[in-house]
């Protein structure tokens, strides 16, 4: 209620004096002329609501808990978290051979299912990043408390409390490093945990892990760094690749392999403690030194894949084409040999299309002699428009022969209206 003419609100709290006849009093929000302050006034703790009813802290905590539990279930989840958009598109030949991986946002990303990832790697990444992944609802208060304690003891940030779900959110939707951004990241982690099962979240996470050199995901790292699939990783390779995402640039396996092996050793010992490795396996894993090579993505059938990528929107992670990689290589070699034979006639470029006319499928497409030629290498000769010229004569003569004309047939040389 308003206090007289002053326009001040009176808070709805209960007070009690110490006398025997003391009862509820209204404490005004401001003094009026002639008011006498009460003595020995005790204010009951609580949250004021209308009608003077006091809601106590236990009920507030209960309401906050219920709200925290229900809000993530009711809040809409960003669609990119449920189904992350592709960062690159893989183009395969008709037999599943990788022709080319074209980045969409400057990164190479190969999607792989959780069942196609080495169990060594799954174990290593869980122990390296989030041991309680299958226990928490997206945010782990124990990990946060541990990280705060370690940071306070060290006087600097030495540990993080982010869960795998939070890291997944951060990799898909960069949120920044402010406190508000961290709160948003934690809330979205709670939201997505109500929409997707744990295994699916883990699978998405493994496919967006940063590995430097524009690589995303364990499958891309395994293929480009080690020349194998993620399911083929041994214990040492898995432990090393589980450590790299902590600092993809600072822990580049091409330059810091010794440091990575030292960081991977505790994970190998943990595998032994949990029975994943026996004594012989542990000794072999500790002695093994993996060979990492610079990423060299394949670059086959460039004109065909470039045309496909330009003509169709990149909505899929993988596109299977009708190109046959072996026939493609033969066509490229045939074009080079033919142009070499025509060198004296100043023929410098050419194009080849090999098609299965019955199936209507293109088996090979060579747009120029050298795709990397700075002058005309990326000009697709198979798609270039030309005047038909004498090419039409072949079809006209064939149609005439089918109609009974012969080379001796006489035609009137006068205009004809069709």
Features:
418 residues; mainly alpha; Penicillin binding protein transpeptidase fold; 14 helices; 39% helix
Ordered list of secondary-structure elements with their pairings:
Layout: E1 15-16, E2 42-43, E3 47-48, E4 54-55, H1 57-74, H2 79-82, E5 88-92, E6 98-103, E7 108-109, H3 119-129, H4 141-154, H5 164-172, H6 179-193, H7 198-208, E8 215-216, H8 218-226, H9 235-243, H10 257-273, H11 279-287, H12 302-311, E9 318-320, H13 325-341, E10 352-356, E11 361-366, H14 391-402
Parallel strand pairs: 5-9, 7-8
Antiparallel strand pairs: 1-2, 3-4, 5-6, 10-11
Helix pairs in contact: 1-6, 3-9, 3-10, 5-6, 5-7, 9-10, 10-11
C-alpha-based Rg, rounded: 36 Å
**CATH third-tier fold name of the largest domain:** Penicillin binding protein transpeptidase fold
Poorly predicted residue ranges: 1-22
**Total DSSP helices:** 14
Looking at the overall shape, the CATH architecture of the largest domain is: Orthogonal Bundle
Based on CA inertia axes, which overall geometry fits?
elongated
The end-to-end span amounts to 97 Å
Strand order of the largest sheet: 6-5-9
Give the mean pLDDT.
84
Task: Please give the domain count.
Answer: 3
Report the CATH C-level class of the largest domain.
Answer: Mainly Alpha
Number of strands: 11
What is the subunit arrangement here? single chain
| Estimated helix fraction | 25-40%
Secondary-structure-based class equals mainly alpha
Strand content: 5-15%
Q: How would you characterize the largest beta sheet? A: 3 strands, mixed
């Amino acid at each position: 209620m308003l206090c007289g003419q002053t326009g001040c609100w009176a808070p709805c709290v209960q007070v009690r004096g110490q006398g025997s006849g003391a009862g509820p009093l209204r404490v005004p929000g401001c003094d009026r002329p002639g008011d006498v302050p009460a003595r020995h006034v005790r204010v009951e703790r609580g949250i004021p609501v209308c009608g003077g009813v006091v809601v106590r802290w236990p009920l507030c905590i209960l309401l906050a808990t219920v709200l925290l539990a229900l809000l993530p279930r009711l809040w809409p989840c960003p669609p990119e978290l449920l189904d992350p958009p592709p960062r690159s598109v893989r183009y395969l030949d008709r037999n599943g051979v990788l022709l080319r991986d074209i980045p969409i946002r400057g990164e190479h990303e190969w999607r792989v299912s959780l069942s196609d990832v080495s169990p060594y790697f799954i174990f290593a990444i869980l122990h390296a990043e989030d041991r309680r992944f299958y226990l928490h609802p997206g945010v782990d208060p124990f990990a946060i408390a541990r990280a705060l304690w370690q940071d306070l003891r060290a006087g600097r940030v030495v540990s993080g409390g982010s869960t795998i779900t939070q890291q997944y959110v951060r990799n898909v939707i960069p949120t920044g490093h402010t406190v508000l951004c961290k709160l948003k990241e934690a809330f979205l982690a709670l939201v997505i945990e109500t929409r997707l099962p744990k295994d699916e979240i883990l699978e998405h996470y493994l496919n967006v892990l940063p590995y430097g050199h524009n690589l995303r995901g364990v499958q891309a790292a395994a293929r480009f760094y080690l020349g194998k699939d993620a399911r083929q990783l041994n214990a040492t390779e898995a432990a090393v690749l589980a450590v790299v995402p902590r600092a993809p640039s600072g822990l580049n396996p091409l330059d810091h392999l010794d440091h990575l092996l030292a960081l991977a050793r505790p994970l190998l010992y943990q595998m032994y403690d949990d029975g994943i490795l026996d004594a012989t396996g542990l000794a072999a894993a500790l002695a093994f030194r993996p060979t990492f090579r610079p990423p060299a993505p394949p670059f086959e059938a460039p004109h065909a894949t470039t045309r496909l990528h330009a003509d169709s929107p990149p909505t899929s992670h993988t596109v299977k084409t009708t190109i046959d990689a072996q026939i493609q290589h033969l066509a490229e070699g045939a074009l080079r040999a033919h142009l070499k034979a025509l060198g004296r006639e100043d023929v410098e470029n050419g194009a080849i299309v090999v098609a299965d006319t019955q199936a209507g499928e293109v088996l090979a497409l060579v747009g120029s002699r050298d795709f990397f030629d700075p002058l005309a290498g990326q000009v697709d000769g198979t798609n270039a428009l030309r005047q038909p010229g004498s090419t039409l004569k072949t079809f006209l003569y064939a149609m005439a022969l089918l109609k009974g004309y012969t080379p001796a047939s006489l035609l009137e040389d006068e205009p004809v209206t069709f």
